[in-house]
From TrEMBL:
Keywords: Membrane, Transmembrane, Transmembrane helix. The chain crosses the membrane at residues 42-59, 71-87. This is YcxB family protein. It comes from Streptomyces amakusaensis. The keyword Transmembrane helix applies.
Amino acid sequence: MAGGAAGTRTPVALTYRTTAGDFTAALRVRSRKTPAGRRQRILWPLLALLTFAVGALRLSEAGRPTDPFGLVMLALGVLLAVLHFATPPLTARQLQQVFGTYGELRTVVDHSGMRTGSEDFEQALGWSAMSRYAETPELFVLLMAGKNAAALGVLPKRGLADPADADRLRALLDEHLQRV
């Protein structure tokens, strides 16, 4: 984290409205880039598969397709699999419902951290609250400090006034956070 290129001293401003797609993409990044997310990506499908297998084995051993325990385990395995895939979009939709009520957001990123606000909402985060960031073609995703931190920041590139601001924002993030 080198300090102080002259171009990174100027704050970078973004003006945008969040979308459920922004949050879905950010949650996918978090699941790939954090230890807790990677564990969930492995454990939930494994648990679903094991539960389903126990149910199938029980039904085959019982010799009757109506064994209650086997049917419950099969259904639970399917439910766990569905929940694994449905949870990120549902969570993203809930986040959008919350942040959508704030309308247009304005975020300023500078050497003190990040400030986001609208008419009814204001939040400031110093760099110490964040530890890493990832970049997608549409977003910068800020991951909060802490091994199992669930919070994240979403900065849509469409909110930048000038495409060159993406380079300035990336330089600021590189100066203060680890890119993952």
